[in-house]
Amino acid sequence: CRPSPPRQCPSTSCQRIPSATPVLQCRQRHARPGRRVWPAHPCPDPDCRVAVLSAEGKHFTAGLDLVDAAQMLGGSNPDQDPARKAAEIRRTLFRLQAGLSALERCSKPVIAAIHGGCIGGGVDLVAAADIRYCSSDAFFLDLGLAADLGSLQRLPKLLGSASLLAELTFTGRRLPAEEAHRVGLVSRVLDDRDRLLAAALSLASDIAAKSPVAVQAAKRSLLFARDHPVAEGLAQIAAENAAMLQSEDVARAVAASLSKEKPSFAKL
């Protein structure tokens, strides 16, 4: 792929980053994960191979919007029958869950670059990303409710300690950056926000230079393996690679390795 100038994708919070291999950077302009400030289906453009999610302002997310929450819990009709009110709230929660799970459904890798506070729904959001980097001032915090947008389902498979997860869930205490790194929630901690974004975009460019056939197949297999036994995961990757190993990208990668040259792969 040739370098291209920055351009806005369908979501106004996303911008194409000029590079030899396209990266999509998505910035939350309003730090409220309950609001629609990122695409429902990130990175649909086949020219883009990786998405980086970051935020502007002091914090990555400010948590639940209390006005929105009051309207949601109040329902459209305050005199509504409790069963019907519960059904309406349940539909709203399903919609919000689907919005955050869009990062996981994205066929391309999603990198979350987290600075400052990652509060409430922000924890649900970054738990759905594939890779998480943070700055040294970052902290993670979930308050007030039994989380219902994904963190209680994903964090048990991300953190290295069930005891710590229970402690954080029951107390709502802050998880600082270094501790988040130690327990595996993030894979790198950078000194400040500028270094954080530079590192995330560098990683994205590195991934984007690889075969999109291999990268996207690997993401599907990692997610499948997370939710299935080993034997089913092996069967899944065998079925996946029965098709993917026929790709021209395999020959390109082998030829580049033998010639000590950097391979170039077509978009997928």
From TrEMBL:
Q: Which domain of life is it from?
A: Eukaryota
Keyword annotations: Fatty acid metabolism, Isomerase, Lipid metabolism
Write one Gene Ontology MF term. delta(3,5)-delta(2,4)-dienoyl-CoA isomerase activity
Q: Does the keyword Membrane apply?
A: no
* Pathway(s) served: Lipid metabolism; fatty acid beta-oxidation
Q: Which family does it belong to?
A: Belongs to the enoyl-CoA hydratase/isomerase family.
Return the protein name: Delta(3,5)-Delta(2,4)-dienoyl-CoA isomerase, mitochondrial
